[in-house]
Each structure stands twice: as structure tokens, then as C-alpha cells.
Specification:
Helix content: 25-40%
Number of domains: 1
CATH class: Alpha Beta
Oligomer: single chain
Shape: globular
CATH architecture: Alpha-Beta Complex
Radius of gyration: 17 Å
Number of helices: 8
Length: 235
């Protein structure tokens, strides 16, 4: 059996008008060979750029040893930290959300038209690999805000599957003033939905597979936005 690839997936959440919360799900294009047509969370495999010196120098809020302590000593500090970086990179590539801060720790103003246009151009260049994530961070003088991303769970694809992943799941709140793209090169459509409603719709024309359903079930244990934020110290 092939060794599973290291991967990271993010459960992006936001509050709703009733004091509860919604989660972002993205539908993969039908033509994709892996899980085409299914609803999933943003995420993907760890890439070399996620653990490069250029990228890791642009990280704040969590050190390599701290990440290693959370995920396990067998990973090593660079690979452990790269799991957090991959969350931030994948979230930007797939739905345009930027979990970064400026050099002085200031929150980004992504509503500025010039900034938004420049970021979108960089995002589109990152997807095919014509731009390196570390280069994007350097060019914009940005730092990955790893403290915004909270470890949630761990799953490994069973051995009988032809494609296997060793995946860490994370929670992150939608940054103030940002909006997820409705579609992109890797996303046919995206939607915000309550975890319990997503599970109910899964019995209809709403394709979901484990471990997505498992993560949604775990979230149904929290009946309020405040309770979720307090448990995982989301901000």
C-alpha cells in the first residue's frame, strides 16, 4: 500500500443571526478525478513550499516546536508547522480567504479595490504554481497568522483505498471583512451551511463522504457560536 500523503483541511466557520454558526463547504468540479462532485472542506496535501525557509520565516503565532508538540514528535518541527501553513495557503488558493497579518500585526484591509485586485491575481498564479506562496508573502510583506488556526482532529485514509492521506483538520473563523469566493479553479461552488443541516441534506442530492460527515457530526455537539469559540479559543 502507498504511504499516505500528509495533508491539512480547514473547517472555516462563521456566526449566524441566531447565535449559532455555519461552516464553509466547497463542491469539487465534476471533472476532478478525486472526489469530483463531492462537497468537502478546503484543504490539500502539504507542498514543499509550505515548509521552505522563505515561507516559514513569514509565520507568526506558533513555533515549530509548539506545532510538533501538538501533532506529534515523529513529524519534526518543520513538517508540523507546514500543516498550519498549508491551511492558510489552501484557503487562499481555493476561496480567496487570507489568514495573514501585516508586519506590525495589523489586520488586512482586503476591501481596498487595488489590494483585492492584486491579491486575486496572485491567487490565480498560485494555483498552477507559477507563483510560490513564500514569494507572495514576501511581495506583500505579509505574515501567516498561525494563531488564527486551531487544531481540531486527525484522520488517516484506510489502507484499502488507492489514494491515502494522513490529514490534520483545523478550525478557523472567517476573518472580519472577508468573503469566500463562490467558485474558483478548484471549486465548482461554495456555500455556508449549518453542520446539522448539511448532514440532513446528505441524504438527498448533497454528496458527502467520511471524514467530512464525521467532522460535521463532531461540530453538532456545539449549539452556539459562543460555545464553539470558547472551546477552541477562536477569534
Amino acid at each position: 500500500m502507498r504511504n499516505p500523503k500528509h495533508a491539512s483541511t480547514v473547517l472555516l466557520v462563521r456566526s449566524d443571526a441566531a447565535g449559532k454558526f455555519e461552516i464553509l463547504l466547497t463542491r469539487r468540479p465534476d471533472e476532478m478525478k478525486f472526489l469530483g462532485g463531492f462537497y468537502v472542506f478546503p484543504g490539500g496535501s502539504i507542498c514543499p513550499e509550505d515548509r521552505s525557509d522563505k515561507t516559514l520565516r513569514r509565520c507568526r503565532g506558533l513555533s515549530g516546536p509548539q506545532a510538533q508538540q501538538i501533532l506529534g514528535d515523529h513529524l519534526g518541527p518543520e513538517l508540523a508547522l507546514a500543516h498550519w501553513v498549508a491551511v492558510i495557503r489552501e484557503l487562499f488558493e481555493e476561496v480567496g480567504i487570507v489568514l495573514c497579518v501585516g508586519e506590525n500585526g495589523a489586520v488586512l484591509d482586503v476591501k481596498d479595490p487595488e489590494t483585492a485586485q492584486r491579491f486575486e491575481g496572485s491567487r490565480k498564479a498560485l494555483v498552477p504554481g507559477s507563483l510560490d506562496f513564500g514569494e507572495f508573502l514576501e511581495a506583500e510583506n505579509l505574515f501567516c497568522d498561525l494563531s488564527h488556526v486551531v487544531y481540531f482532529s486527525h484522520r488517516v485514509t484506510p489502507e484499502f483505498f488507492p489514494m491515502r492521506f494522513d490529514t490534520r483538520f483545523y478550525l478557523a473563523s472567517l476573518p472580519l471583512g472577508q468573503t469566500a469566493l463562490s467558485r474558483s479553479e478548484e471549486v465548482a461552488t461554495s456555500l455556508w451551511i449549518a453542520p446539522d443541516k448539511a448532514l440532513q441534506e446528505a441524504n438527498r442530492n448533497f454528496p458527502l463522504l467520511p471524514p467530512t460527515t464525521t467532522m460535521l457530526q463532531n461540530l453538532t455537539a456545539f449549539d452556539s457560536w459562543q460555545g464553539l469559540c470558547e472551546k477552541f479559543r477562536l477569534r
